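Thread: Modeling a multi-component assembly for a lab meeting

Hi all, long-time lurker, first post. My supervisor asked me to bring a structural picture of a complex we are working on to next week's group meeting, and I have zero experience with this. I have the sequence lines for every component (514 residues in total). Could someone generate the structure of the whole assembly? Inputs are pasted exactly as I received them:
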Amino acid sequence: MKYSETLLDHFKKPRNQGVIKDADAVGEVGNIKCGDIMKIYIKVDKDKEVIKDVKFETLGCAAAIAASSALTELAKGKTFDQALAITKDDVVAHLGGDVPAVKYHCSILAEEGLQSAITNYKNKEK
Amino acid sequence: MKNIYYDNAATTKVDDRVIAEMIPFYTEHFANPHAVHSQGQIALDAVEKARETVAKFFNCENQEIIFTAGATEGNNIAIQGVVNKFKENIHIICSAIEHPSVLETCREMKKRGVKIDYVPVDENGVVLVGKLQKLIKSNTVLVSVMYANNEVGSVQPIKEIGELIKTENEKRDKKLPLYFHTDAVQAVNYLDCDVSELNCDFLTMSGHKINGPKGIGAMFIKKGVKFSPVQFGGHQEFGVRPGTANVPGIVGLAKAIELISSEGKANFKKVKKVRDKLVKEISKIDNIKINCDLSTSLPNILNVSFLKAEGESILMMLDMEGIAISTGSACSSGSLEPSHVLSAMGRKPEWSHGSIRISLSKFNSEVEVAVFIKALSVVIEKLRKMAP
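Re: Modeling a multi-component assembly
Sure thing. I ran the full set together rather than chain by chain. Output:
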């Protein structure tokens, strides 16, 4: 198994890593049993339903950290509709496309993490 | 920056003295040792001299040593060989913490109708002999327990198991013997490998784990043990392992073994000292767990878990600092399952996912420890900060 340069770059210098203290919603996916936990924080422009800011905290392997980082880059500035359309394949493509097969679940986790944050936001606003 | 190599349980650097012994068998004495001409005979003499060196180390007869391509091949010859011999309605026991070359071979044998049982280990990764005894049935033909574990370094009660099997055999009809196989790959460097003491029927080892070359190994097969060869061809290695002998490899393996005979005790002390220093320093990091009983385990393996830091990420970050270690985390295995060894020891997933293995050799020094600990502390802090 070998990681691509792009993936390693995201691992070495993760984008948008950290906490949004006054986040409008948080999504948490994964579990300790499988080894990966991903927490996605979002700050929302309420009128436009746009993701103004997004940050992540991840416990996991290099691919999980890189996928979280890639996801935040993809999600930032997007409308909910655009953000919900982000798939695991988009995450993989953003990481240079060359993600080892056994690591695909990390990008699924990223996709689900963002969806969970948006769902939590919508439920709260109801 | 100088690299630090802490992955010696995976493979080791070849000792210069081993290489020096090997080279003439590539450049000058390259003839086929199975040829009758005198050039071939020089190679043959070297092979037989090497066999004598290895036999002396394991305290057995020369004819009881077979040169193989490594322990994976040896393990296959032992396990498949016994299964092929006794075929119908047979039962095998192996430990839950065996190397994949034993576990996967057993799994394949299961597909062929052999019943398999796995003997559990205690929290320190040591086989429970009482449980093993209970698993032995009248149709058990083979017990396979490694001498020392490659992931955590736990040393198994091989002599005790050998005695147990000897006693079982005394009660048995000679037609269906119970054999004992031990994968001694990690043990050869540091533990007593006198097969008459261990009471084993098969013992396997690899050259590349003992500062010897890759692609060569040796196995002990006790005289009179019944098994069927799994490979066919010429009649080399008493028909057990046909194929032209890897003469440079064999010569190199024997040299590596000779070096253990003369320097093994000093190396034991040396690596233990480095290991102990590592333990002392790593223990200063909070939320860690050492995955072994260090008073009884191999001196060169240190397996430690960090809470809230994932093993593969630790490995990758250390790699960026030029440090090579390995991990038992699920993410590096390709199967997404955490280490079967740590699981068998009852380690919870949150601990096994954060495990790393540091494995030393005679080439590691105390000086490296400070560099390593500094890098490790930064990495753990960084990863824990990233974790939710």
